Amino acid sequence: MSHYIYVAIALIIIAWLAWRWYSTKHNLPCPAWLSWMVELDNPFARAHKASEIIASLPLNHGMKVLDIGCGPGRVLVPLAQKIAQVNGHATGLDVQAEMLQKASLKAQKLHVNNVDFIKGNIDQVPLEQHYDVVLMICVLGEIPGAQHESVMRKVAAHVKPDGIISITETVFDPHFQKRKNVACLMERVGFTQVKQVGNWFAYTAHFKKKHI
Q1: Are 186 and 208 in contact (CB under 8 A)?
Q2: For residues 70 and 153, what is the distance between their CA atoms, to the nearest angstrom?
Q3: H/E element holding 154?
Q4: Are 202 and 40 in contact (CB under 8 A)?
Q5: Domain locations along the chain
Q6: For the purposes of burial, counting CB atoms within 10 Å of the CB of 154, is it exposed (0-12), middle (13-18) or buried (19 or more)?
Q7: CA–CA separation, 172 vs 206, rounded Å?
């Protein structure tokens, strides 16, 4: 293997570690110029694929879905296409206007009309709806750790009684959150795990409100 390849690999690892460390202290979303990378399906991370995430979700008449950190609409747009069959509606939330523009353009090209968009941070933007499904795909780690519980309590307050929060993580993302830590966080905010798919490389876990 060439010396330059070793150097390139080392630089990638250093950048990955630096990004991961910095994101534990600061809100650090994936930049819009990397949207092309967000769109890629990793063959080792099957549970991270858009088709797999969508297939794992319930399909109920008139359902409302919120995709937090929707990015360029990798999951949001095909999901909106699917739930259109049951008169469902999808909302994408992202802090970056450029990401929302990409998602909106994709929806327009595919003639997907049952989707709208909210620009802002989840910890700051007001939510006016209650949702059957809330998606958080590789986004929890973009929120500083000290804010995880307060943000998830806010999200939980906007989930319908029988709704779910679906969290997807992949080890290839520098913001990766371990399954055990996510499950403990969700327990603290009053949710319990009801489903999990995936493997060590990537997983999707569904959480439902506990019935008291």
Answers
A1: no
A2: 20
A3: helix 148-156
A4: no
A5: 3-209
A6: middle
A7: 20
Strand-pair partners of 169: 203
pTM: 0.84
Look-up: residue for tokens 């630096």? 18
Q: How many CA atoms lie within 13 A of 186 on its CB side?
A: 23
Six token digits for residue 29: 């979303």
Fold of the CATH domain 3-209? Rossmann fold (3.40.50)
Residue position matching structure tokens 């202290």: 25
Q: Mind listing the pLDDT tens digit of every residue in the chain (212 residues)?
A: 566 565 554 555 555 455 555 555 555 566 655 555 666 677 778 899 999 999 999 999 999 999 999 999 999 999 999 999 999 999 999 999 999 999 999 999 999 999 999 999 998 898 989 999 999 999 999 888 889 999 999 999 999 999 999 999 999 888 899 999 999 999 999 999 999 999 889 999 999 988 75
The two tokens of residue 54 are: 């969508």
Residues 6+ apart with CB under 8 A from 123: 143, 147, 150, 151, 154
Q: Which two tokens stand for residue 183?
A: 């499950």
With beta carbons less than 8 A apart as the criterion, state whether 202 and 48 touch: yes
